[in-house]
Structure formats: structure tokens, C-alpha cells
Amino acid sequence: MGGTSPDNKPFVRSAETKGKGQRYKLTSAFSNAGRGLFEAVRSERNLRIDACMAVVAIALGFGLRIDTPSWLAVIVCIGMMFALETVNTAIEAVVDLASPGYHELARRAKDCAAGAALAGALASFVVGCIIFIPPIMAFLAS
């Protein structure tokens, strides 16, 4: 089930390995998660665009000296977008694995995952406009 990685560790823990008291090291969990995030950023154009937009939002936040609640909103939006795009990437990979040929349900699954990422992007855009437009307008007016 699942195959092994280059270091002969199973990619996926099975019900047998979970049930026999084998511990899954926290360091392995973080390592795998980091590898997954790196792979998603490396392979997905939209995630690289999101990363660039995150840098712009952070730079604007510092430049415009936004308040703490605004920083929290920016951080939540950045985290949400990375999470949504990464889950979208994972869903697309699993659907491609399960259904290499065209299937209507595969298309629907991929479209729904992409739609979730789009909804998050639109919400983040609105939050960014609410946070950044007033201080930008004030700066331009002065």
C-alpha cells in the first residue's frame, strides 16, 4: 500500500502501523508538511503568485504602519490562501491519481477545489482593499 520514499519509509501509514503502537515522530510530521508546502510552491504558479502578493501585503503593512487588528487580518488571509491553494493542489493530485482519464466527477472535484481557492482569493482581496486603500488615499492626499 502506498510505496516507499527514497529512504525506505512508507509514504502513508497504514491501519496496521497506526494500530501497533508505532510512534510517528513530530519531527517527521513537520518535515513532511514542509516538504509538501515546498513542493506546492515549486509546482503551482498560483501559489507563487500568492507568495508574491503576501510579500506585497507585508511590505504595505509595514510601510503604512497598519494597526494590530489589520495585521491579524492580513496574516489570517495569507495563511488561508496558502492553506486553500495547498489543499487544492493535493486534491488535484489525488484526483489525477485516481482518475487519469477524463471523468465528470473528477472535473467537478477539481473545479470545486479551485473554486474554494478563488473564494479565498476574492475574500483576501476585499480585506486588502478595506485595510490598505484608506491609508493609501490619505498618503496620496497629503
Automatic annotation (TrEMBL):
GO terms for cellular component: plasma membrane. It comes from the Bacteria. Substrate binds at residue 85. The keyword Magnesium applies. ATP binds at residues 44, 92, 110-111. InterPro entries: DAGK (IPR000829), DAGK_sf (IPR036945), UDPK (IPR033717). The active site is at residue 85. Pfam families: DAGK_prokar. This is Diacylglycerol kinase. It comes from Senegalimassilia anaerobia. The lineage of its organism: Bacteria, Bacillati, Actinomycetota, Coriobacteriia, Coriobacteriales.
